[in-house]
Amino acid sequence: xxxxxxxxxxxxxxxxxxxxxxxxxxxxxxxxxxxxxxxxxxxxxxxxxxxxxxxxxxxxxxxxxxxxxxxxxxxxxxxxxxxxxxxxxxxxxxxxxxxxxxxxxxxxxxxxxxxxxxxxxxxxxxxxxxxxxxxxxxxxxxx
Amino acid sequence: xxxxxxxxxxxxxxxxxxxxxxxxxxxxxxxxxxxxxxxxxxxxxxxxxxxxxxxxxxxxxxxxxxxxxxxxxxxxxxxxxxxxxxxxxxxxxxxxxxxxxxxxxxxxxxxxxxxxxxxxxxxxxxxxxxxxxxxxxxxxxxx
DNA sequence: CATACATCCTCTAGTCACTAGAGGAGCAAG
DNA sequence: CTTGCTCCTCTAGTGACTAGAGGATGTATG
Lengths: 143, 143
Hints:
mainly alpha, 59% helix
């Protein structure tokens, strides 16, 4: 169990930038860590995992508030089953919606690339594919 | 060929909100349209196409600057498609990464729900599912 | 031990891509 | 002709950072 990791190291290891870590502390997403004699933040491996999780969740498009509820699942292990169930169920719905959207987007991008294989713009239907697409299945709102 | 479409209609048809259309004009993503006697913006079907394109591109995760280059490529036809292709290819990679992570999260949430259904307080591994994923540093920064 | 230099601290302000609201003008229907 | 909708411009606010100023601390080398 690593302890007393300075903010720069934890930033490099987690992929979250130093000012962003301080920002997360400010908005209460990351608990304020203990400080050294000289007032520097000292993190542990738990913080590192939490930060990695936050980064992935952000990259997946979850808003901070959604991440907060996800972390609440982890932070309050003794909470009632019903409560955890409700949170997990809501997040699962969101995850499934995003999966649907992303799958549609993937198909779209693959089609774009397939039709754009090394031609001139005149032969490239990238723009048409995206513009002409009046009633697409990508309309799934995801927020 | 529809012409003289008011902003609200074009907003509904393209799926881009009215203030966002004005914002796109302000940042030069959409050319300023002609105005009516009473100073209202009058759009044509070309603008509608352009707006639909922008919306789809935004949904695909393209940043405004990437969309600007895509539109610039379209406005100067006969040039190489390589730049647009590269942008689309990068987005496809990102979408595939997100799909993998989201699937992992979905499996974990489903596992928790299944345990809850059996009256057990699930020990939450949500963080581990997304945190212990250290070898994906590849897509940490790609803009 | 001194000094250079990286890393850290707090604080304020800026960025991106919108979004909301104030305050007012235009237009179509009853 | 008035009600009510859409539109106009403008300013300010939002979320989630990101950059920079100005200063303290920690560490590696002469």
